[in-house]
């Protein structure tokens, strides 16, 4: 998926992803007030219990309506607090968390994640009758469409609309969304296969994408693609009805298939969603339509959101945080206020923050290991909200991934969370690194980045480095460190999965065949064994693949060490007292937007 | 008069062109690939090229500048559709027409300005005149003392205090919000009551001090003393002679404050989470959204220049000795 990137100053932590292992029972009060040790032990136990991979649902699981939320009532409007506008509303352009949350309300695709009360995920058919039927050893996937799926204007959705939705991703209209399915169908230079998309009457050949009748869509790949049902849950693959496609304009006025449609959109300011009367609950196994709509205010920063929700007065009683978190400066107030704490949801996010080494400059593994040992991970967590903001990481795969091993800790970070400077010094001595050696550290000029810079500078100075801290504007941080010839030795980067599979983490970040300007292999790791393991895993069935991914992960962390694990990211959000049905969503790693209602509409 | 207006308007156009040129070329001194800011995870060279083309960044800088400036007069065509004059381009960030964004934000900024202005002018000028009228008395001391204290406050201090008292603790009022005046004037006023009150508290102080000192100064002028000596009543002289004379410096300050507020009351808008022009300006600048930044800059410059002209005209009206030539 993506790094934790600040695409603009709106500075939203990007996240699309889903997580299969996020804590269950993450509603407020479960562990918030307990001792730290007890709480963390519970976190690890919960994570360990939930390492089942995502399952694929059949037709029965894909049939609506969705399971009723206990005590839910109809009516009223929910106020949505958000500090910046959505990055996009055109499904094809959607790749980050804010727009993904929005997409859950408005768009629908072939498949979607269904989440049970314990946070376990099942891929079900959304507008398709099931999660997909594979044949030809996983190279061919067939989807049948449900009856009576309509857009907000009452137009029936057919296979031609699905074809159109995929083919428009090849055009220049779309440049910001996911590219998995296009690349799987037509290769990495997929745009050449259909340069104008479907807009000039051309289509992909039936040998690639076939629509034999109005209700059937067949994907043909050149190799097995067992992850297709999960990839198709991404909002980037939601349906854009052919007749409704207005190309560039669609980003501001998309047509809904989901339970809500856009009544008013004011760029950078507000959005009003109202009920889509063409949405049929019987066709939807995931979503509800309890409230009459949502009023988004997109100019309220996290500090104001927290203040308003803490006070819980007036319209704030009906309000939620969308993808922003509790303001770190007010976190202790929230946690220490019993009534406010009851109104929180929290859990793991899919991101792992890591100290990335530029392997073109940091060639000696002993030096990389020394820095890894020296890093004060716990202090770094404290600078990002403390125990509700993160948790010390032992490896590079998040607790939200199947196969996560809470015991994995090759650098002893769980035992010495604030580092082991003595061991680090010994390694530097072995490596012949002299006292006062310069080390260039690039960091983003966010409050968190600035606070962590001080910690890192201090910690590395203690083992003899003269750290040259280089501040980079938050909006262009990933662009700068994503350049192959960047002049930095180390930099903090974050990454999260696109769906609960290590393939969406290890491949983009550690595959040596994906080293180029602008890509996500920030360390420039190019290890033949890791590359081979990645290729192997991508062609294996899930159970076998899990073992191969684990092997690749261990090889990366222990034998190469291109990035020191620092901490797993966590999330805490607050909502108003009149909000019902609030729970942490494993799928979105935010409040479950599909379940909400007003206690007193 | 006509010559004066024509000359000033031509000057304003030239200044706006220079501001536009300065902003535009200053932006390009930033070592930043604007296309990369819109490029997501898959920031391949191909995707970057697509974004550059979509944003028009693949053209020479001079061409981009010329298209921007001529678009203000003639309008332009974009993939999103035709952008009618005055077209200020398309936001890099949102893809919206800049003019539409400005027009959308302006009513809030105008409401903030007008409401605040009415309060701080009435209260500020009134209390200043009262202090001058009662010079040396307890009333004067109270008014002068209060204005010194209040003028030392800032919106970012008083704002959160007001919110804490009237919204978060007591729930007497809801969070400030803009509702169109045309929909419901009462809701409009109630939604902006706290920002107005806070703005007025701070701005009032300077107008109180200013009007008091200029009134006292005017009251000591020879023509005022002569009028009194001729037997005119104190109140007649106070309002007919002294007050009118004291308006020149006040009008100057009003012109400056008004143009600054109309260009965006940044601190007020951020303090109360109100999406006006000031917030748009700051966001666009941080986002390195060149067309939006230029649009807001030019819009603000327009008001500064317009109000300068209005102030000059006001001088002539207030003081017949001033000639617009």
UniProtKB/TrEMBL annotation, chain A:
Keywords in alphabetical order, please.
Answer: Signal
Q: Is Metal-binding one of the keywords UniProt gives this record?
A: no
Q: Which GO terms describe its biological process?
A: peptide transport
Q: Which SUPFAM superfamilies does this one have?
A: Periplasmic binding protein-like II
Domain annotation Solute-binding protein family: ranges = 123-511
Q: Where is this region: Disordered?
A: 28-70
Molecular function GO labels: peptide transmembrane transporter activity
The cellular component terms of Gene Ontology attached to this UniProt record, alphabetical and capped at eight, are: ATP-binding cassette (ABC) transporter complex; periplasmic space
The signal peptide here is: 1-25
Q: Name the PANTHER family on file.
A: ABC TRANSPORTER SUBSTRATE-BINDING PROTEIN, PERIPLASMIC BINDING COMPONENT OF ABC TRANSPORTER
Protein name, as recorded:
ABC transporter substrate-binding protein
Annotated organism of origin: Streptomyces tagetis
Automatic annotation (TrEMBL), chain B:
Where, by residue number, does the polypeptide cross the bilayer?
A: 9-28, 108-133, 145-168, 188-208, 247-272, 292-318
Domain of life of the native organism:
Bacteria
Cell compartments where the protein resides: Cell membrane
The UniProt entry's sequence similarity note says: Belongs to the binding-protein-dependent transport system permease family.
Q: Could you state one GO cellular component term attached to this entry?
A: plasma membrane
Gene Ontology terms for molecular function: dipeptide transmembrane transporter activity
According to its UniProt entry, this protein's organism is Streptomyces tagetis
Pfam families hit by this protein: BPD_transp_1, BPD_transp_1_N
Topology within the bilayer: Multi-pass membrane protein
Where is it predominantly found? membrane
Task: Extract the Gene3D superfamilies matched here.
Answer: MetI-like
Q: Which PROSITE patterns match?
A: ABC_TM1 (PS50928)
Would you tell me the protein name for this molecule?
ABC transporter permease
Give residue ranges for domain ABC transmembrane type-1: 106-315
> Which keywords label this protein?
Cell membrane, Membrane, Transmembrane, Transmembrane helix, Transport
- Which InterPro entries does the entry link to? BPD_transp_1_N, MetI-like, MetI-like_sf
